[in-house]
Amino acid sequence: MPPLFSAHNILLIATRQIGDVLLVTPLLRSLRHSYPQSQIDVLVYAHKGDMLIGNPDYNQLISVAEHPNLSQYKHLLTRITRHYDLGISTLPGDRPLVYTFLAAKQRIAIVPKPRWQDNWKRLLTQHWTELDNTQTHTVLQNLRLADLLNIPRTYSIIPPKSAEPTEQLMQRHIPKTWQQRPFVLLHLLPQWHYKRWSQPNWQHLITYLIQQGLHIIITGSSSPTEQTYLTQTLHSLKGPILNLAGRLQFGEIAQLLPKSQFYVGPDTAVTHLAAATGTPTVALYGPTNPLKWSPWPLGHSQNCNPFQHHGTQKVGNVLLIQAPGDCVPCHQEGCDRHKQSHSQCLNQLSSSSVIQQIHQARFL
Fold first, then answer.
1. Which fold has domain 166-360?
2. pTM for this structure?
3. What CATH architecture applies to the domain 9-148?
4. Which secondary structure element, helix H or strand E, spans residue 138, and what is its range?
5. For the segment 24-83, what is each residue's pLDDT rounded down to a tens digit?
6. What pLDDT, in 10s, does the model give residues 230-274?
7. Where in the chain is the domain with CATH 3.40.50.2000?
8. Between the N and C ends of the chain, which has fewer C-beta atoms within 10 Å?
9. Could you tell me how far CA 78 lies from the centroid of its own chain?
């Protein structure tokens, strides 16, 4: 059957954080397969579209500030208003729905659960699907928009790509003496404090991996906070450790990941990226709901959540290690309910138990 709407120009609105933008790529690929000749543009927050670099499924990336001023609003609205045949919002918020309404005559969207103050959002769209923020994985939630369009689903997450060949990339960043040595890629610091694993646990894990004959490559950003954290964590450790934080783009990380023996990281964008590349991925989860936000294993192509709500689990190439505690996952931003909070469950997740789980998964 043909798509519900014909469209020569499509705007996909994905004003989310970096990792969330990666989880939009199955929907984006579904659109490209069903609209091969159409212009497909993606609206993202400024500096949050790096996960789409090299992605062949869209034409233009449009950026808007997370909190636009009047001039930025004017520029955006001039750019998108009535320039599209079809507008698609992957978010139920006020601004994405307004952007969708202004951009196109034909509109579909994710909308919030019924509340009198949100009824207007349903009136702005021809077709909508209701947000399930607890029981449905974000990939599947996005793909319900493909169902509304009557187009086939594509479940693959598409990693960003670097224009530089992988071997050239490795020669530029990795010492020659490392070229034939097995290495593990680690990402230590998530964006928010409540998702952190402790420095002593990272130090113990790194020391153990080095004792097993593995080299260590660290990824991260160039932010002063992250650089200081990594310096403090790594300064007393001995052995083959290469800190590439701030030196790699996401597309470059995506090329290095499959070369690694496995990857370890918290609930962060690089962990989702590792899973998408097929790399054996160890994801350290605490308060986060894995039903909604687990890494999507490579090859998982069923209309069901890959992971259960509770417990350490291995699905495909992803080992999700859930922190201990009767309250886990609490779906909250840490014990103090804010992004800079601690999370007692992650504090109690020992490096010894993580090492044991890595062995049981046969990653080591």
1. Rossmann fold (3.40.50)
2. 0.96
3. 3-Layer(aba) Sandwich (3.40)
4. helix 138-148
5. 999 999 999 999 999 999 999 999 999 999 999 999 999 999 999 999 999 999 999 999
6. 999 999 999 999 999 999 999 999 999 999 999 999 999 999 999
7. 9-148, 166-360
8. N
9. 30
